[in-house]
Amino acid sequence: xxxxxxxxxxxxxxxxxxxxxxxxxxxxxxxxxxxxxxxxxxxxxxxxxxxxxxxxxxxxxxxxxxxxxxxxxxxxxxxxxxxxxxxxxxxxxxxxxxxxxxxxxxxxxxxxxxxxxxxxxxxxxxxxxxxxxxxxxxxxxxxxxxxxxxxxxxxxxxxxxxxxxxxxxxxxxxxxxxxxxxxxxxxxxxxxxxxxxxxxxxxxxxxxxxxxxxxxxxxxxxxxxxxxxxxxxxxxxxxxxxxxxxxxxxxxxxxxxxxxxxxxxxxxxxxxxxxxxxxxxxxxxxxxxxxxxxxxxxxxxxxxxxxxxxxxxxxxxxxxxxxxxxxxxxxxxxxxxxxxxxxxxxxxxxxxxxxxxxxxxxxxxxxx
Length: 368
Fold this sequence. Notes:
By secondary structure, the protein is mainly alpha-helical. It contains ten helices and no strands. Residues 32-51 are annotated as: Disordered.
């Protein structure tokens, strides 16, 4: 075995020697070739030098200078690129450090914000619980106060109606006594007037007497139509309402009260005198035979309250006595507001009285 190993090692050494000899032979051949090539190049240069002489030398120098300049330019650019690359690296490192700092700051802020939000949420929850407890206690107090107010209202209303009944009973007795006296006085006056009339009437035949009476009646009728002058408050429809004029609601109330007493043509004549400005123009644009009701509806459409029934009713139910307002003014204001509601919808007298009474006591400041 040992002999075989030695033989193998010797064979490998022999192979290495052979390869080494080949390598040496190859290198010698390459050296000879390069030497021959250099000789041929030198010969060519000598030939070119001999041919061209000085010009060839100048051209070679130029080419060498250009090469050196190019190499210098390339080196300069390489240096600039290296400087830029180093600067970019420094910037990247700086940006990376800044980013790390900001990330750390943001994480810290996020932790602080979470902590503050959690604390605020706990505070809000505690406040909400307190508010709920207060709301429950307030609702209980409100219920108790409403019960007390209802009891007081019932007591005051009972006392009020008792006093009113007593006053009405006393007034009725006084009125009965005074009415009897007035009736007696009126009967006496009627008797005396009849006697005076009988004394003053001319003694004519029956037909003449009838004719004379008709003429008197006709004359009295003409006098009623022409000479009666209604003093209705003036109304022009201007906003705000001037001091010398009345609002449309007051004007309508006045006309409604006058319609019951006087004839239609008399009220119409009074309207012509009372209306001014835009309201008068509106009346003049209507036809000549228009009734008082038609004129008033036209005026209400243009100058009346345009609010709906719900809004008027909500205003009435939410009304309260103002500071410095007397009880009489408060009651009149309530009646006017309820009157506007009754013009839109029909309400019974009993219901109207109960609504007025409840709103008067609930909205008045004297109850406290």
